[in-house]
Amino acid sequence: MGQSTRMPVTAMLGASVFCSGVTFAATMPYGAIVGIETLGLSNEHYAAMVSISSLVGALVTMFIGYASDRLPDRRILVLMAAVAGATGMGLVYFGRSQMAFIVAITVIWPFGFAMFSQNFAYVRVYYNARAPERAHFMITALRTVFSVAWVIVPPLAGYIAALYSVFDVFLLSALAYLACGVIFAAMMTDPATRIAAAPIAARDATGMRGFLPTPIIAGLVGILIINIAMRLVGLAMPLSIVTRLGGTVGDVGIYAGIAAALEIPFMLMWGYLGRWLTREAIIIGNGLLLGVYILLVSQARSVMDVFLLQAINGIAAAALLSVTISYMQDAIKGRVGLSTSLMDVVGISATLAGAAVFGVLSAGGDYQLLLVAAAGFAVVGGLVMLAGNTRQLRMAPAD
């Protein structure tokens, strides 16, 4: 692209990704509280609502990803997703009823959920066009900005919910969606930020129509299994801290804060090391390292042990939350939008599978067993990816 931009695009994209992080970090801990405790939904109805929302979200993100590779302007989809997200969160805030909550979460919000992946799809194609040598690193760097939101926003949202109303966190999310929409609306006034979809090649690099290469399939399956492990840890670790280790809800907040804070420098580290290591090697190695961490934390004897082990978790989680983005964006050659939507599909599938495993293994309240199972998932995921990518490990990094 020879046309120069008159806007600070990197700063604007960073602000957009941060706002995307706010939309999740402000509301995710409070969905069940609003649905069950405040609005009176039963546990079964809330679980069914979340499952429906997840499935609708998967379909929507795949459709949007498919469409984004054919639209003349990718900015439009991010703007539309921002408007949908603001509408859904705003409906919860202003409606404050079971019907408003159900409609917002299952019908409207799944369209807003796609803002995260399409944000990163735009980042990737923008830097592919402007500075291809920096594209992978910028994905990692901007993913750290998303993590910053998770460090800052949950305490703020908790303060707002405690001082005012739990519904107010949904207003905070709606405002973050609107801010992202304003950023992309402003960018649409600058023709230099318009990124059109490239012509779609009839065949991928393997020369086979309609099929992903075996290494990519193995990689995606491995990442899915590793994500199941991460979901299980997210469900089991807070409960283990409170029940088995005698910790408090405050300890859970400290644990989450340490984990999120450590991800930030390590994400930048992995972005830098990506110059010498392939993405496959980074993901495989850190999938196995995650398994080691989970096994160690399952044997923790105190809350302090959990805190100290976050140093290992930070290294592994930073790679698995950032490097996997650029890996999946290259899964379908020439289809960045559709490939990026795989992040949402993998995340949703891992959440559903993790919830099923959690339901089976936690029936007796044995969260230690659940953590051991999670460690097994992480190791198996790394080995699955390794089995299909032995040749890729001997190649030079894509960057």
UniProtKB/TrEMBL annotation:
Localization terms from the record: Cell membrane
Keywords, comma-separated and alphabetical: Cell membrane, Membrane, Signal, Sugar transport, Transmembrane, Transmembrane helix, Transport
Q: Where are the transmembrane segments?
A: 45-64, 76-94, 100-123, 144-164, 170-189, 210-232, 252-274, 281-300, 306-328, 340-361, 367-387
Q: Where does it mainly reside?
A: membrane
Query: Can the keyword Cytoplasm be found in this entry's annotation?
Result: no
Q: So which residues are the signal peptide here?
A: 1-25
Membrane topology note: Multi-pass membrane protein
Q: Which residue ranges does the record assign to the Major facilitator superfamily (MFS) profile domain?
A: 215-399
Entry similarity comment: Belongs to the major facilitator superfamily. Set transporter family.
Its recorded name reads MFS transporter
In which organism is this protein found? Answer: Devosia oryziradicis
Source taxonomy: Bacteria, Pseudomonadati, Pseudomonadota, Alphaproteobacteria, Hyphomicrobiales
